[in-house]
Amino acid sequence: MNAKIQVGILSAWLMVLPVLQAQPALKQVFKDDFLVGAAVNASQFSGSDQAASLFVARQFDSITPENVLKWENVHPGPGVFDFTQADRYVAFGESHQMAIIGHTLVWHQQTPAWVFHRPDGSDVSAEWLMNCLSNHIFTVVGRYRGRIRGWDVVNEAVGEDGKLRPTPWLRILGPQYLVKAYQWAHEADPHAELYYNDYGIENQPKRDGALTLVRNLLAAHVPLAAVGIQEHVSLNWPAPAQISQTIAAFGSLGVKVNISELDVDVLPPTAVGHSADVGLLLARNPRLNPYPQELPETVQEALARRYGQLFFVYVQNRKSIERVTFWGVNDGDSWLNNWPVPGRRNYPLLFDRHNQPKPAFSNVIASAEKYGLLQKKGSAYDEVANP
Ligand code: GLA
Prior knowledge:
β7, α11 (240-251) and β8 (256-265) form a beta-alpha-beta unit. The protein has a single domain (19-381), classed as TIM Barrel (Alpha-Beta Barrel), CATH 3.20.20. The chain has helices at 3-22, 26-29, 42-45, 50-59, 71-74, 84-95, 126-143, 168-173, 176-188, 204-219, 240-251, 278-284, 297-316, 359-385; strands at residues 35-40, 62-65, 99-106, 150-155, 193-198, 224-229, 232-234, 256-265, 321-326. An 8-stranded parallel barrel has the order 1-2-3-4-5-6-8-9, surrounded by 6 helices. The chain is of the alpha/beta class. The termini are far apart. The longest helix is centred in the C-terminal third of the chain and has 27 residues, at 359-385. The radius of gyration is 22 Å and the shape is globular. α1 crosses α4 (50-59), α7 (126-143) runs parallel beside α9 and α13 (297-316) packs parallel to α14 (359-385). The protein contains 14 helices and 9 strands. The structure holds alpha-D-galactopyranose (GLA). Alpha-D-galactopyranose binds next to loops.
C-alpha cells in the first residue's frame, strides 16, 4: 500500500472515529432479529470515498447494488459484458463478511432496448429472447457462484391490478419466462437464495397477484426463499396492519420476507412527473419542493415516529423477516431527490447528508428496546402464569 493511500485511510478513520464510538450500529442492534442492509453506489464500495465505505461497513451487514448489477450496466450490448464495477461491489462485501445481494436479473426497466427490439423497432423473436435471457442469467449468476447470497431474480412482474404486468418480457415470451428465469438462476448457482421483489404489494389487489405468482412458482418446484417487499413508503402509507398482514400472507406460503428497498418519502406526492424544464417547474411550484434547506422539526418528528412504527412491526415479525435493507445510506444518496421530480430535496433515510443519525435513527433503536422489554415482561408473565 503506498503512503498516499495509508494517509487517506488514516484521515478517513480520524474523521469517522468520534461518530463511530458514540453511535450504536444497526447490524448489532438487530443481530438476533434480521440482517440490516443498504443499497450502495460505486463511491461507497470502490474505496473512492473511504469515510463512506467505513460508515457502510460499520452500520450494515448486508449490501445491495443500487445499479451496478442491473442489465444495462453488466450486459450493455449483445455479447458484451462489463463486470468492472460489479466485481468491486462483491469484493467489498466479501472484505467485510457481508451478506451480498444480487439485484436484479429480469426487469422491464434499466434493460437496454436491443434486448427487446430489432434495429427496425419490431419485437425480437421469442426464441431469440429466451436464449438471450438464459445467457444473461448463466453468465451473471455463474460469475458470482458461491459469493452472492441471494438474487432478486424477477423484479416487479405484477401490476397494480394484480395481473401480470404487460412488460416486453410478457408480451414476447408469455408467462413461461418467470419459471424459466428461476430455474436457470438455480442451475447457475444451486446454493444462492432466490427472491421475487416488488413494490406496493401491501395493497390488496397487487398482493393477491403476487401471492398467485408465488404459488405458481412453488407449484413449479422453484426453490423460492423469500419475497422482497420493497417498502418505498410515505409517512402515512401503508398502515402497520397492512404490513403485518402482507408479511403473514407470504409467510403462510412458506417463504420468508425481505424488506428490500426501505425509504420514507416526506415530500408531497405529485403527478407532475419528469419535465423538460425542471428549474422552471420547481420555481413555479415551490410547494413541490417545500424543504429546500432543511426538514422542519414537526416533519422530522413525524418521520421519526414513522420509522419507530415500521421497525416495531419488523421486530414483531422478525421470525418471518430475513433482512431489512434501506434504499441508500444517507439522505443525499436517495433516488427520491430526483423522482418523480428531479432536483427536489428529500429526507427519506436514517442518516443526514453528513451521515449523522437523525431522530428517526434513535426511534428505530428505541423500537428494538421497547420490543425487547415487552418480550421480557411477556416471558416473566408467562413464567408466573405457567410455572
Ligand atoms: C425499484 C428498483 C430499484 C431502484 C428503485 C428506485 O424499486 O427495484 O432497483 O431502481 O426502484 O430507484
